[in-house]
Every structure is written in C-alpha cells, then in structure tokens.
C-alpha cells in the first residue's frame, strides 16, 4: 500500500473545529440543546420550522421566540459559519459560483445552477482535496481541511435563500438536486457528509425534505466507503470518477488507484447498484491523447459489461475543463465523437455533459477557492 495515500483514506483532521451549529445536531440533540437554554421541548420544532420551512437562520428575527433568549440562541446554536467573499455568474445569471470564507479563514466554493426544470447545487465537502488528481485544480491545491456537517449543510441553506429571494433568473423555488461534486472527496469526510445528507432528506420540521434521488455523491473510488454507503440503504445516486478503464493509466491520473484498482472500484459500484436499485454514473473526463482513444472506449465497455447488462450503469463523458498552467486539455471533437460512437455501438448508455460555468472557473475540476477574478 502506498503510504502517501494513508491520510486520504480516512477523515482528515480539522485545522480548527467550527463552533457548534443547529445543523450539526439531529432532532433529539436539538431538543436537548433547546432544553439546555431553558426552552420547552416544543421550541425545538418551532426553531426548526424557521430554519427549514422559512429558510431563516437569524433568531433575532423570530418573533415567536422569547426576546430574552434570542441572543443566546444565536450565539450558541446559530453562529455565523459562512461569509460571502465573491460571487461570479455565467449563463445569463443562471450559473452562480460563490466563494465563501469559513470561521478560520479557510476558503471554499459552491456552484448553483438553474436549468429549465430544476435547480442544482454543486456542494463542497472539504476545503481543497487530498486525492491529487493531476488534471484537477482542486486536487492540485491540496487538502486544507474537512468541513463540518453544518458547514456542508449551510451551503444548501444559502442556495435555497438565493432561490427564494429571486436572485437566480427563472425561479423563486427551492433546490431539486444537490451533487457532492464540489471541492473535496465526499467519502473521505464520510460522517459529516452523511449527517448533512440526513438533514437534507429529513422531512419538515426537522430537515429540508429533499428526495434521496435528487442527491448525488461522487467519489474517485474509495472502495471501503462505497461499501459503507451501500449499507446505508439510501437510494442516492452514486457517481464514480473513473477516468480510465485500465490500471496502468488510472494509477497515473487517479492516484487512489494505487490503493484500489479498477476492478475493485467497479465491483463496489456494481454492488451499490444491485443493492439500492439505483443506476451508477461512471464519470469520465476526456483528455486529449491521454484517455480518449477508441481502444480505451472499447476497454471501458469490456470493464463495465463484465458485471452484467447495461441496466446498472450510465457513462457520463465530461469534456475536460481548462485549468491555469495545466498540460491537460480537452479532447479533439473528432476523438470525442469517436469515443461516444464506440460506446453507443456497444449499447452503453452514454451522455456527453453540457458543461456549465467554465468561463467563471466553476465547472468540474476548476474549483480552487481563489480570491482572484
């Protein structure tokens, strides 16, 4: 085992533990926290309705909470976790990348995208990323620290507040989809990510009431954590960033492959699909003269077909997004078309992702939390 990868497999330590927040607590813990402030149990549901139904996280504005307790409630259970630094837009305002600063000065980014029939948030689970994929700006910046459960969840609240306020053209609704494809490897911060997901799924008054089918968790292939996610029994969408069908190439471009090989990763993904009855998405960033040859398209088909018919999987091809100073670049259009045609000829369900936000460095692999415009 490559000892350099050991810190990547397990939860990384936080540089400075964030203050406790309502979003860090489950419903029972919220009742206990309310009681510790001298509030009756029913106040916990009342507080949660303000947060999850009304999208308000400022207790000083809650007229049905005793005035004498509002300040303590704000200080002890609703500390300020995210500070807006910059906001950049693309697609006529329908794609918004926000740079946030956390309590300790750590920076992170999230991207809100409005489509004709849905609103999607690309959410971050870590500040930076420790997976070190050489074609990804986030990975090349390294891992700063894990985010807390509340720091993850509050990104969803902020996005819902933006939508409700009409700050995104075409909607005043709520998030339909959340994709854990922002900064970080979600399964390397497993407990915080799953705690956040449970809050996203929990119906009112204890959560946002989202559908599990509207939440996607992406991973570069932490097999033990995929297995743990499988055991959760939640019908989330699993997206596996494969990027190469053979170990020789994947060892180079996805370093975690030195720990878990292609067959192990695909086996774990197949078992997830079998157990949850949810089709797995295989993410594949097309890189010029690296992984975009027809021979590798055929190899990808062979790797996926070994697990059964095509009902369990969908291949999502991603034109590589440019990052400053990188030698990696997108495939030629003719090579892209030939790769797609090969998969289609073999019957593989495949789509070519419509990239959003690349002009504001908000697309896949571009998030670097840089405070420059």
From TrEMBL:
GO cellular component term, pick one: cytoplasm
Query: What's the Enzyme Commission number for this chain?
Result: 2.1.1.192
Q: Which residues bind [4Fe-4S] cluster?
A: 129, 133, 136
Q: State the reactions this protein catalyses.
A: adenosine(2503) in 23S rRNA + 2 reduced [2Fe-2S]-[ferredoxin] + 2 S-adenosyl-L-methionine = 2-methyladenosine(2503) in 23S rRNA + 5'-deoxyadenosine + L-methionine + 2 oxidized [2Fe-2S]-[ferredoxin] + S-adenosyl-L-homocysteine; adenosine(37) in tRNA + 2 reduced [2Fe-2S]-[ferredoxin] + 2 S-adenosyl-L-methionine = 2-methyladenosine(37) in tRNA + 5'-deoxyadenosine + L-methionine + 2 oxidized [2Fe-2S]-[ferredoxin] + S-adenosyl-L-homocysteine
Protein's GO biological process: rRNA base methylation; tRNA methylation
Q: Where does S-adenosyl-L-methionine bind?
A: 184-185, 218, 241-243, 321
Query: Per the database record, which ranges form the Radical SAM core domain?
Result: 115-359
Active-site residues annotated for this sequence = 109 (proton acceptor), 364 (s-methylcysteine intermediate)
Q: What is its main location?
A: cytoplasm
**Record's Pfam families?**
Radical_SAM
> Superkingdom, according to UniProt?
Bacteria
InterPro entries associated with the record = Aldolase_TIM (IPR013785), Methyltransferase_A (IPR040072), RNA_MTrfase_RlmN (IPR027492), rRNA_lsu_MTrfase_RlmN/Cfr (IPR004383), rSAM (IPR007197), rSAM_sf (IPR058240)
This entry's comment on the bound cofactor is: Binds 1 [4Fe-4S] cluster. The cluster is coordinated with 3 cysteines and an exchangeable S-adenosyl-L-methionine.
Q: Which UniProt keywords apply?
A: 4Fe-4S, Cytoplasm, Disulfide bond, Iron, Iron-sulfur, Metal-binding, Methyltransferase, rRNA processing, S-adenosyl-L-methionine, Transferase, tRNA processing
- Which principal EC class is assigned to this enzyme? transferase
Q: Where in the cell is it found?
A: Cytoplasm
What's the cofactor? [4Fe-4S] cluster
Q: Which GO terms describe its molecular function?
A: 4 iron, 4 sulfur cluster binding; metal ion binding; rRNA (adenine(2503)-C2-)-methyltransferase activity; rRNA binding; tRNA (adenine(37)-C2)-methyltransferase activity; tRNA binding
User: NCBIfam families from the entry?
Assistant: rRNA_mod_RlmN (TIGR00048)
Q: Report the protein's function.
A: Specifically methylates position 2 of adenine 2503 in 23S rRNA and position 2 of adenine 37 in tRNAs.
Miscellaneous section: Reaction proceeds by a ping-pong mechanism involving intermediate methylation of a conserved cysteine residue.
Sequence similarity: Belongs to the radical SAM superfamily. RlmN family.
Name of the protein in its database record = Probable dual-specificity RNA methyltransferase RlmN
Q: Which organism is it from?
A: Tessaracoccus antarcticus
């Amino acid at each position: 085992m490559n000892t350099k990868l050991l810190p990547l497999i397990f939860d990384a330590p936080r540089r400075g533990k964030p203050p406790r927040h309502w979003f860090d607590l489950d419903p029972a813990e919220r009742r206990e926290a309310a009681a510790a402030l001298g509030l009756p149990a029913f106040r916990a549901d009342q507080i949660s309705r303000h947060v999850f139904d009304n999208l308000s996280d400022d207790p000083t504005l809650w007229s049905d909470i005793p005035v004498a307790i509002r300040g303590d409630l704000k200080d002890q259970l609703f500390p300020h976790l995210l500070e807006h630094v910059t906001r950049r837009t693309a697609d006529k305002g329908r794609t918004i990348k926000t740079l946030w600063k956390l309590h300790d000065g750590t920076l992170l980014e999230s991207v809100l995208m409005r489509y004709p029939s849905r609103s999607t948030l690309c959410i971050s689970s870590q500040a930076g990323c420790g997976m070190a994929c050489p074609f990804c700006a986030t990975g090349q910046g390294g891992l700063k620290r894990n985010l807390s459960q509340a720091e993850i969840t509050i990104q969803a609240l902020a996005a819902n507040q933006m939508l409700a306020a009409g700050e995104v053209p075409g909607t005043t609704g709520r998030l339909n989809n959340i994709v854990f494809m922002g900064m970080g490897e979600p399964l390397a911060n497993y407990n915080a990510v799953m705690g956040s997901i449970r809050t996203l799924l929990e119906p009112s008054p204890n959560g946002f009431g989202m559908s599990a089918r509207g939440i996607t968790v992406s991973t570069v292939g932490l097999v033990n954590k995929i297995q743990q996610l499988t055991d959760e029994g939640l019908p989330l969408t699993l997206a596996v960033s494969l990027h190469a069908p053979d170990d020789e190439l994947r060892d180079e471009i996805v370093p975690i492959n030195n720990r878990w090989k292609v067959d192990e990763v695909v086996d774990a993904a197949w078992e997830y699909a079998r157990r949850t009855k949810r089709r797995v998405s295989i993410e594949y960033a097309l890189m010029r003269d690296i992984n975009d040859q027809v021979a590798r398209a055929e190899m990808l088909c062979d790797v996926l077909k070994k697990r059964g018919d095509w009902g369990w999987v969908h291949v999502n091809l991603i034109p590589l997004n440019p990052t400053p100073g990188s030698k990696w670049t997108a495939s030629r259009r003719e090579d892209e078309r030939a790769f797609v045609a090969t998969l289609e000829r073999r019957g593989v369900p495949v789509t070519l992702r419509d990239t959003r936000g690349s002009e504001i460095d908000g697309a896949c692999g571009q998030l670097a939390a840089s405070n420059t415009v």
